[in-house]
Specification:
about 140 residues, 2 helices
């Protein structure tokens, strides 16, 4: 009986490569999303510090110029945070799309792997039957001393 050969082995290798590429894209998207979320947290922390600083300054001497600078800085931080939230949403959508592509690539690989396993199992069953048939057809040799 001839050796087992999965006819779709090349397709499986190509799909495995595609799966690895999709996994790399997904990991890059995850890292980019984490970086953008970290930036958002940094800006939100800066805003919180600015608010605390402004509340402390209100308890001291009143200077219009200082208050105006504080409010302008706070408004700028709010615009940055609003923009950064939009960036995080965009990166989150990109990460979800990359995850979905990876899952689809993984499913196509799993389908081929299961098909290959099924064919290998069938081949092995036929191989065992052939071996048993060959063993049954041979005359038994008795050792006579």
């Amino acid at each position: 009986m001839k050796k087992f050969r999965f006819s779709l082995e090349r397709v499986l290798r190509v799909r495995n490569l595609q799966q690895q590429l999709r996994l790399a894209e997904h990991k890059r998207a995850e890292r980019a999303l984490a970086a953008q979320q970290q930036k958002l947290e940094m800006f939100a922390g800066e805003r919180d510090l600015q608010c605390d600083s402004m509340q402390e300054a209100q308890q001291h001497e009143f200077r219009t110029a200082d208050r105006m600078n504080d409010w302008m800085y706070l408004q700028r931080l709010e615009r940055i945070i609003t923009y950064q939230k939009a960036v995080v949403v965009e990166y989150s959508q990109h990460e979800q799309a990359a995850k979905k592509k990876f899952q689809l690539a993984r499913q196509s690989c799993l389908g081929l792997e299961k098909l290959g396993d099924r064919q290998r199992h069938e081949w092995f069953g036929e191989f065992i039957k052939e071996e048993q048939k060959t063993a049954d057809d041979r005359p038994r040799q008795r050792h006579r001393d």
